[in-house]
Amino acid sequence: MKRRNFLEIVGGILEELSKAENHMLRPTQIMHKCNLDWRRMNVLLEILRVKGWLKVVPTDYNRVSYQLTQEGFEILKRYREVIQSFQEIDFAPKNKPKAHPEKYLRRLW
Fold it and tell me: Has this prediction a pTM greater than 0.85?
């Protein structure tokens, strides 16, 4: 399984919140949908809240939910544009090497 970087994890949180009804989810729902552990998720949610991308909404029985703010939507839009532009780039080498790099390195040893 490929490890995700910070940008992918934050993008995943914002994506899941944008799909939710009223753009609002409880912490456990975010944890399960984004496949995060509780401690890391709480740190990330606090970072996003301080940045103003999420806001805390009190719900029934002393629970809280997180809701995507307008600034969060704008960041998500830019995130999607960046991801889309990278997907359109062809990273394949134009001139394929004649020998496989590992074979070349073996010859050097």
Answer: no
